[in-house]
Amino acid sequence: MRISSFRISTSILAAASMLFAASAVAQNTAPIKERQELMESNGDSAKAASAMIKGEQPFDAAKAKQIFNDIHGVAMKFGDYFPEDSKTGNETEAAPAIWEQPEEFEAALTKFQEESATAMEASVEDLESFRQQFGMVAENCKGCHEDFRIDDD
């Protein structure tokens, strides 16, 4: 039994079209995973800061400095993980506003970088100075989360 070359060509074309369509909708989950890990690191830093501020852990100037160093490190890397093909997938909480309002997102990211650098470079010798610096950084985080994060809670 012979299969016509037309049927074979049509089958090949259909298979190629399906592969192309599948790749066109595939999402790049690697940057999503990276930004989730970076935000998890920030969450860990925030928990450590909160424990000191609440008196659950004693104030430690070296630990306070490390918290700000870690947060600033995240701030400097975070913006690298938002390519166009990472808008969905992998349970991302990145809001569409990131790609719809790139100038605003970039401004928020720059503010995060600058404020975390200021906190990192500040003289944090006691709990009160730490509380003030951390409050500024946390307020920046809150603003960005309100504008550029999908909150499923």
UniProtKB/TrEMBL annotation:
Pfam families according to UniProt: Cytochrom_C_2
Any single GO CC term annotated in Swiss-Prot or TrEMBL for this entry: periplasmic space
One of the record's GO molecular function terms: iron ion binding
Keyword annotations: Electron transport, Heme, Iron, Metal-binding, Signal, Transport
Signal peptide per UniProt: 1-26
Modification after translation, per record: Binds 1 heme group per subunit.
Residues reported in the UniProt entry to bind heme c: C141, C144, H145
Keyword RNA-binding attributed: no
Transmembrane segments: none
InterPro entries reported for this sequence: Cyt_c/b562 (IPR010980), Cyt_c_II (IPR002321), Cyt_c_prime (IPR012127)
Presence of the UniProt keyword Nucleotide-binding in the record: no
GO biological process terms on file: electron transport chain
Protein name: Cytochrome c556
